[in-house]
Design a protein that fits this description.
Blueprint (H helix, E strand, L loop, with lengths): L1 H14 L14 E5 L5 H13 L3 E3 L11 H8 L4 E8 L3 E8 L5 E10 L1 H4 L11 E5 L7 H14 L14 E8 L2 E13 L2 H15 E4 L3 E9 L3 E12 L2 E7 L6 H33 L14 H4 L2
Parallel strand pairs: 1-2, 1-3, 6-7
Antiparallel strand pairs: 3-4, 4-5, 5-11, 7-8, 8-10, 8-11, 9-10, 11-12
Length: 310
């Protein structure tokens, strides 16, 4: 018992700080899964996000799209406190649910303009298992729903220090920018290159001092950002108070469903077809009145000879 007590007391002494307060550990785990009906591009995007998040756990597809409260049980089963669920509809539209299990909140996004890493063919790359730097736009502090989205995304995309499958490196940046009420997500590699004398001569001392950072023992290095993918745009639709349920605390009134956009497009095409058909009928009637149609005999007028001298 004495040996056990010494080992436990040694661990507790190491864990406590100089002030005698135990440091708080950031324990975040993300459950990533999708619904039935996802396309190959959606599946590749899910794999890209799974590779970028070493603290995530990927599960099989969920059979239902209505009983989403079952995701809380799955998160509890896999010891995850964050859920990222990809919902595909009609093989075209992709919606993503981000939730903080089991108490919430939950944000539903509509994903647009998604491009996977294999599609972009960017020269950049990052180490698998490395931790990212999260860069949020200052516009996130302008509205309460953006503040909530920032906090939830920092929990999901922020890899905690010391998590499973993580490497002690920080070599890429995930940028979140707001434009037109939508969240633009990009991923960049942090690349360091040695600055040559020709670069210093061409750019000048001032430009070189702005673009380079001095590293001890290595001279001057030039830090640049190279996009590696994936990239996509998120449009917030609704925010629920609890996890996959509860009252609605925010609703985007400006969001237009892609089904409505497609139906309006079909109606516009149908309207153009109806206009063309009406013009065709009118032209046939005019040609018939003038006797220009083949196989159509114009009825005799009242002043013609065959009518007057009949």
């Amino acid at each position: 018992m004495a040996a056990v007590y010494k080992s436990l007391s040694g661990k507790s002494a190491k864990s406590t700080s100089s002030n005698g307060v135990t440091p708080r550990k950031n324990k975040q785990r993300v459950l990533i899964l999708s619904s039935r009906g996802v396309t190959y591009r959606h599946r590749h995007l899910l794999n890209d996000l799974y590779n970028l998040l070493p603290h995530s756990r990927k599960d099989a597809k969920l059979d239902t799209k209505t009983k989403l409260y079952q995701l809380n049980e799955l998160a509890d089963l896999y010891n995850c406190n964050n859920v990222m669920f990809f919902e595909a509809r009609k093989g075209k539209d992709l919606y993503i649910w981000m939730s903080k299990a089991p108490n919430g909140p939950t944000i539903k996004f509509h994903m647009q303009n998604l491009h996977t890493t294999s599609e972009l063919h960017f020269p950049g790359n990052c180490l698998k298992g490395s931790r990212p730097i999260l860069s949020f736009d200052a516009t996130f502090d302008s509205a309460p729903h953006f503040v909530l989205a920032k906090e939830l995304m920092s929990h999901i995309f922020g890899v905690p220090k010391g998590a499973r499958k993580t490497k002690p490196f920080v070599d890429h940046v995930m940028g979140f920018t707001i434009a037109d009420g939508k969240i633009w997500v990009r991923c960049f590699e942090i690349r360091e290159n040695a600055v040559s004398k020709t670069d210093l001569a061409t750019n000048g001392d001032e430009a070189a001092s702005k673009e380079t950072s001095i590293v001890k023992g290595k001279g001057e290095t030039k830090i640049s950002l190279i996009e590696i993918g994936p990239r996509f745009i998120l449009t917030p639709i609704v925010i629920l108070e609890s996890s996959f349920g509860g009252p609605v605390i925010y609703e985007n009134k400006e969001f237009v469903s892609p089904n409505l956009v497609r139906s309006e497009r079909r109606l516009s095409k149908a309207g153009r077809y109806n206009n063309r058909s009406e013009q065709r009928i009118e032209s046939k009637a005019k040609k018939g009145d003038l006797g220009l149609r083949t196989g159509y005999e114009k009825p005799p007028g009242e002043m013609e000879d065959r009518v007057l001298f009949a």
